[in-house]
Hints:
CATH topology of the largest domain: D-Maltodextrin-Binding Protein, domain 2
Structural class: alpha/beta
Strand content: 15-25%
Number of strands: 10
CATH superfamily of the largest domain: Periplasmic binding protein-like II
CATH class of the largest domain: Alpha Beta
Mean pLDDT: 91
Number of helices: 13
Amino acid sequence: MKPIRIALMLAILVVLAWTPTQAAGTLKISSTIGPVDAGMLPLLADTFSKKTGITISMEKAGTGKTLEKAKTGQFDLVMVHARKLEDAFCAEGFGIDRRDVMYNDFVILGPKDDPAKIKGMKKVTEAMAAIAKARVPFVSRGDRSGTHVKEMEIWKAAGIEPAGDWYEVWIDGAKGNKATTLYANQKNAYTLMDRATWLTLKNDIAIVPLMENDKLMLNLIAIIRVNPEKFPNVNKAEALQFADWVVSDEAQLLIRDFGKDKYGQPLFFPNSDQWNAKHHQ
């Protein structure tokens, strides 16, 4: 075989060996804070990157700010948990292909002596009404995050507009659920919080879950692709690949088992359409 032909074949082999890495792109995800701080989204991103070679970076903020940041076209995907804001984001043409990924739920945390006497109540609206009537300290994130949106949804369902010196809209609520929980604990106050945050902090705080398990307290987390027709520079193929994978059985099993060993129960539950079709018939 002539040296030129051998050299050409070697060059082709080098190109073929290098091509998958070259073809692998990058993804930028704008995410609500909870799945990042809990470690769920980093685990999903790392697993996906190892499978595909696609690099993932993520920035975290409350859902409202997360969606506003994505409206700049500088992100490929969002992970969020406030359905009204999600629907508006898509209706305005910024997002497409919303998919349910996982869920957990909210609880009302409060002092163990429970001055509002909400422990044992079955409806979260009644519990919130009791807190308002007792005028005991309550801390709100107040930042249009998914947690804040859910809180306001519950107040509205209870027919209450919370106001007064007992109700504190924390100035640093945008720092996230972990920071808000620690602040509420410091104030010995009630607050509405997602269960995953409580599980990760329960050994460090004195406030405890006093009201839970109302359907109104479900916390549904979804992924939405940023619209490539509006922003042609987004990584369309990689975003679709991640969206397809995160709702697959492989990713949903990671979600199902995440946190069990450390906390004795999962932090999130799988909730993709594909998963539910197989497991909740």
